[in-house]
Design goal:
The protein is mainly α. It is about 70% helix and about 0% strand. It contains eight helices and no strands.
Amino acid sequence: MPSEWCNELIMKAELSQEQSSDRSDLLPVSERRVNHMRPLGMVIALLQAMRPHQWIKNTLVFAALLFTVKFTQWELVVLSLLGFAALCMVSSGLYLLNDLRDRERDRHHPTKSQRPIASGRLPVPLAWSAALVLLISGLGLAFWLHARFGGIVLSYALMTTLYTLYLKQFPILDVSVIALGFLLRAVSG
């Protein structure tokens, strides 16, 4: 399973980090110094925070190729792969923004406290920078591929942002927004 090897890499990076640490891990997360963190550990934490295991949802962009039996037309396959990449960048940027917003609450949750931002393994400035780069690059790629595709991806991003900021508080709306997210992915293909 992809998340198992990722978790194993993270554990190895954390172990090597602990061995070279100045014991600032005993401080509250908000007071930790991040300059002692090794680049590999931060890269792994960033990749984990981008939630690549969720990218499977973005494979819906390939549905049109499959159902129209055009998966042998390489130009369309390349466009679909680029569309998939754009969706993955945007969704990862949105996951980072969600985790940045919820980091204080997540620190008190038994499982969410292990997320890279909440646990302090991913520095907040790096997470903000990565989120912005991913969102701008993903949306830029989406609009470069086709204006309509870019509009759909932008709609997905705005809807997900509304979900993060407000709509996830409402039980019926949150399920509807999640379902609409899947529909937008499928339509984007």
